[in-house]
Amino acid sequence: MSFLRIQNAVKQFGGLRAVDDVTFSLQRGETVGLLGPNGSGKTTLINLVSGALPATSGVVSLDGQRLTGLRRDKIARAGVARTFQLVRILPSLTLTENVKIAAVFGRNAHWGTAADQVAQDALAKVGLLDRAKLPASELTYIDQKRLELARALAAEPDVLLLDEWLAGLNPTELAEGVALIRQLQGGGLTILMVEHIIDAVRALCPRVVVMNSGKLIADGPTDGVLSDPAVVAAYLGEETDA
Known about the structure:
Elements: E1 4-13, E2 16-26, E3 31-35, H1 42-50, E4 57-62, E5 65-66, H2 72-78, E6 80-82, H3 95-105, H4 112-125, H5 141-154, E7 159-163, H6 171-186, E8 190-194, H7 198-204, E9 207-212, E10 215-221, H8 222-226, H9 229-234
Parallel strand pairs: 3-8, 3-9, 6-7, 7-8
Antiparallel strand pairs: 1-2, 1-4, 4-5, 9-10
């Protein structure tokens, strides 16, 4: 049985269908790449899954529970966490405080010392534990991205939505980021990741789905999909950073 299921998802903005009747599913523990040229609807689809945007029609469900129509906090409680293309941190708070918020409002609603421990564990996973007491404003951009990932992990999700989390990393940081995601895969997380760095997609995603102009145009094993002429024309041929 499918674990995360997206069925006939539609998101309409006036006359524009940013997501146009998209259907696919993920099995528990699967990592799938969500690809497509800029403006193809990838982030909008992530927003529908996470509840950041309401769907015009269609259904998103997790382990048989309907998510469509729920508030974002209810979807987080159901086991969905995400990162954003543009990093969203609270600069005046410490790293621990930033991450503790997710532990409190995430899936298991920790409080007090339990929330502190979850936050510390999440910071350790991303290599920021030694700076836990610093204000987030002192972090570099790359470490802000690590902090955002720690916050997503502190929500203790079953499904992690990564929206170009690897973007902007230098080669050393990229290798570290790929290794970190591999560790998360080993822990059994189900991951849907929007990504333009094809080497990372090949390293992390046995399967990819591809969108173009709001529609799903391919779904299958990564190597086969990336050699599909329709995908090359719609995606690879338009992306200079691939």
